[in-house]
Amino acid sequence: MYVLGGGNYVPKYHAKNDVWSSTDGIHWQEETAAAPWPPRLWFPAVTHRDRLWVIGGWSNNPNKNWNDVWHSRDGKDWQQLQTETNWKERHEQSAYVFQDAIWIAGGHAQPLSNEVWKLVLPRDW
User: Fold this and answer.
1) What is the largest distance, in Å, between two alpha-carbon atoms of the chain?
2) 5 phi and psi angles, rounded to 5 deg
3) CB–CB of 37/29 below 8 Å?
4) DSSP secondary structure, 17-57, as one string
5) In order along the chain (125 residues), what is the average pLDDT of each group of 10 residues?
């Protein structure tokens, strides 16, 4: 299991981009103290095709919603997924894996969003 980033909003904003893993929930290992994705709150993470995925979220430094997508096989080495089509920046969206695709739904954008997006990777990706 993995714990990815996150933080506090109150009483004082603090966000992280660290990654921790555990095989038993008792003993934890820090995979990285600072992944290349900006520190953030309120983002979903899923596993798909033997990778961890970090999707969007919000940060206060800079104060913005994100629409970036990052993936890693081991929690240490991360790559940003570059696509021609991007969804509107948001946080607190739902993300799930269904029928070999990553889906995101809704989220807090400006204004609130009820959109649904689907990421389909090529079979040989």
Assistant:
1) 46
2) 50, -145
3) no
4) EEEEE-SSSSS-EEEESS-SSPPBBS--EEEETTEEEEEEE
5) 94 96 98 98 97 96 94 98 92 97 94 93 89
Is pTM, for the whole model, over 0.90?
Answer: yes
Q: Which of 85, 91, 87, 46 is nearest to 64 (CA)?
A: 91
Closest CA to 108 of 63, 38, 56, 50: 56
Domain-wise residue ranges, the chain: 2-119
The pLDDT score that the predictor gives to residue 32 is: 98
**Alpha-carbon dihedral of residues 55, 60, 64, 67, nearest 10 degrees?**
-10
- The SS3 of residue 1 is coil
Write the pLDDT tens digit of every residue in 73-90. 999 999 999 998 889 999
Superfamily of domain 2-119: Kelch-type beta propeller (2.120.10.80)
Q: 59 with 39: CB under 8 angstroms?
A: yes
Query: Quick one: pLDDT at residue 76?
Result: 98
Which amino acid, 7?
G
